Amino acid sequence: MSKKYLFTSESVTEGHPDKVCDQISDAILDEILSKNPDGRVACETLTTTDLIVISGEITTEEGMHPDYKQIAIDTIKSIGYNDNIDGFSAKSVKVQLHIDKQSEHISQGVNSDENKEQGAGDQGLMFGFACNETPELMPFPIQLSHRIAERLAFVRKNGFDWLKPDGKTQVTVEYNGNIPVKVVKVVLATQHEDMLVKFDNSEQKELAFISDEMIKSVILPVLNEYDIPYDNNFIVNGTGRFVEGGPKADTGLTGRKIIVDTYGGYARHGGGAFSGKDPSKVDRSAAYMTRYVAKNVVASGLADRCEIQVAYSIGVAEPVSVSLDSFGTGVISDAELTEIIKSVFNFKPASIIEELNLKSPIYSKLAAYGHFGRNGYPWEEVNKVEELKSKLESVYAG
Q1: DSSP E strands: which ranges in 51-162?
Q2: Shortest CA distance to 188 belongs to which of 224, 138, 230, 152?
Q3: Does the pLDDT at position 113 exceed 70?
Q4: How deeply is 159 buried, as exposed, middle or buried, from its count of CB atoms within 10 A (0-12, 13-18, 19+)?
Q5: What DSSP string describes 175-242?
Q6: pLDDT higher than 80, residue 69
Q7: Helices (H), strands (E): how many in the chain?
């Protein structure tokens, strides 16, 4: 008998304070990679009231350091923190820089030459996941949360000028076994301008207006794109008002939304963040690689659900372990599936970077609305399906 249960995932908009930081860090990374694909970047950003602090270890060729302050200002302006945002705007914000170069002891472990392969930029473990719940082979709750958050930003930039950049979404899905059967609740929080004067100084009337508009123009259009029933059970701005938001209301930090960035808590996470890190950092590159592997396994029909774990030692190219969990959905044993993926995919850092073209300046657009389940990125390609199927046939033949 299938188990029935609820599962919830959340997303945040590009104007959320932590996501502001992720986007600044990745914009800096992209600018460096565009001029020096071998640049080493570990960039952390902090935001608070009218202040951006950029710190980290960045090594690039002499004369190739970008204008960090201008990148930060341009980034927040594109998000929507412009002249009409009190307490954090492109017009008034101050930018502090605290940047050093990469440690030489790390460099000697990740730089390659004719005598030494490129090693991992740190020790650690990374996970990738895929399942057949959505066309993107992503868990349904996080995919839906992202799409609602994206829709919220879209309407803000296309007519709803009373909305402000900060916001969150959350979706609760009812499952029957591994099958999502209904959306039972959607929660949306959005920053907005003070409109009390327009509504007779009534917070209730203001909230009713915002709630009606968000349900009609943001939540329902996204839900109606999916062939799954939903309850009309929506919470909009649960506190009643959300006027003060963004970094003025909450300090932001790079790398603090690792579950939003990945699978919404639906799969395990190794703990490493992505943004601001060049691809020599396996926290980022190996997480992309394991998603690539897991997605190809599911797309090939070898399993309905697949989670890949890989682990590294700093300075060593070969992973210390590679494993696969199909949660009982594999067409053969997990041990046999693990051997198949190890024969098809190369998990050494240099090979990952080459396979997925990770030295390209592609990261800024990933810094909000998730790194996975988005078309146009190499780790979302399902170009190993036939090779995996061929390997499976060899197992059966043996």
Answers
A1: 51-59, 94-100, 124-131
A2: 152
A3: no
A4: exposed
A5: EETTEEEEEEEEEEEEEE---GGGGTT-HHHHHHHHHHHHIIIIIHHHHTTSSS-B-S-EEESTTS--
A6: yes
A7: 12, 11
Q: What is the DSSP letter of 142?
A: H
Q: CA angle 369-293-222, nearest 5°?
A: 30
Unique residue bearing structure tokens 């949360």: 145
- Residue 223 contacts residue 183 (beta carbons within 8 Å): yes
Strands 252-253 and 51-59: unpaired
For residues 63 and 72, is the Cβ–Cβ distance under 8 A?
no
pLDDT band at 114 (very low <50, low <70, confident <90, very high): low
Orientation angle between helical segments 282-299 and 334-344, nearest 10 degrees = 110
On whether the pTM is more than 0.90, the answer is: yes
| CA–CA dist 270, 282 (Å, integer) | 11
What digits encode the pLDDT tens for the residues 279-312?
999 999 999 999 999 999 999 999 999 999 999 9
Angle at 255 between CA 252 and CA 261, to 5 degrees: 110
- State the pLDDT at residue 104: 62
Output b/e per residue, 60-72; b: 16+ Cβ within 10 A.
beeeebbebeebb
For residue 37, the model assigns a pLDDT of 95
Residue 90 phi, psi (nearest 5): -60, -25
Say which residue, 63 or 235, is predicted with more confidence.
235
